[in-house]
Amino acid sequence: MSLEAILTQLLMGLTVGVNLVLVATGLTLVFGMMGVINFAHSALFMLGAYVGLVVSRRLGGFWLGLALAPLAIGLLGAAVERWLLRPLRVRFPESHLLPLLLTFGLSLFFEGMAKVVWGADVVSLARPPALDGAVTLGRVTLPAYWIFALVAAATLAVLVWLIVERTSLGLAIRAATQDPTMAAVLGVDVGRLNTLVFALGSALAGAAGVILGTMTSLSPQMGGGVVLDAFIAIVIGGLGSFTGAIVGALLLGQVQSFGVALLPAFHTPLVFLVMAIVLVLRPSGLFGAGERR
Amino acid sequence: MSAAMLALEDVHSYYGDSHVIQGVSLAVERGETVALVGRNGAGKTTLLKTAMAIVPARRGRVLFAGDDVTQLDTHAIARRGMTLVPEDRRIFPRLTVEENLRVATLATGGAGSLARVFEYFPRLRERLGQAGQNLSGGEQQMLALARGFLTRPKLMLIDELSGGLMPLMVEALTGVLKAINAEGVTILLVEQDLEVALALAGRCYVLDQGRIEFAGSADALRADAGVQARYLGVA
Hey, CA dihedral for A34, A39, A42, A43, is it positive or negative? Predict the structure, then answer.
């Protein structure tokens, strides 16, 4: 590969990686705090893309869609946690299966509703004209929407990192993740925090839906592949670890990018091979089991 | 007469299906240090958890400073000024000492007490940047007490001050608890080591199989060889 090709693949991988960070963050924060693997995450991602589509067509263009979709999906996530997940977890505190079934059912429901409302056909989210050109960085030329997807997702990812690692809210989240009962004994309202974290994770998935929607096409099933990748990323990084999710997602982005370029026929098994190797060497993931930083 | 700091009225609570606390009534007056002693499995830890609604009371009432808090959530009780220093200390393992302390101030506004905490536990100041999981047992107990103190409690429930610690450390922590109590913080202490309990407390309750079997002054318990033999396994 030429240097240009390598740089291009690196940037592509980074773009995929930072968007996976957005999707993976919600999954891992919710798992860390509530012990729930949120199967509805892919549907929230998909709904984010469609809300972006509707807003940009009917209301006022792509940028408004990009702003409103995370808000709408965040509110939806808050409602799901507060009125469905929480009552279920209060009533059956020992069950891991029921929350999983609930979120799985919700994903089927949301996908079905999307089919009813928007049809099963593939549609595309029109890119704003500003993103149609190409950008030349040194010796590499890339479509402008790639650079947009990279910068937008990276900005959000840094923002979330700052929230989790540098604010009081983030401190409360990390404490409640490690020991919810003790956090409550010290006065932290863990129930409210759960709702907030679920909303935050949903909003990020919604944002990623719009951002990646500019690169691919929209369909009710569009979330499945991305969320599977995000799930692999957090398994590599260590389930429930925030740092692990970031590292895992960025790593997976590169594996995919170079896999597609170098071994096009094998890039899917390659992803699983990387996961298998990491799990053999470190069964709890790169940052799992008490090693967070 | 003002209401007791903590009053339990015929409290029953369960762990799963097992009926652990079987109708306990007790009172801790403002400013007191009261010890709750009894054998392993008597229900002492469960009783403290019931007071803070970590384990719900299925019957009876928990009154805190005169208010019925039986139906409140744990965090709401904490914000009213009750805290628990649990048996296994429950330090957040992957937060630093400083972050562990800050968590206690988030909802309770106790940051102003930090200087006092470092007077009581100067060693914590030297460990601020260390992860909670890298502390020694004694340091963890200091941090657990410090965290509790930073919630600006009216009442501290302390589960096993001395567990697993060297006698010198226990002596130092006993001194700190006396000072905290002298500041006006009421203390209910669960303690395996009868000598430690009697050194700190003015009054004692003896719990056996989920029921109070003795209530009286520390001196009365010290003098009562029969109660000690029957419920505490002291020969």
Answer: negative
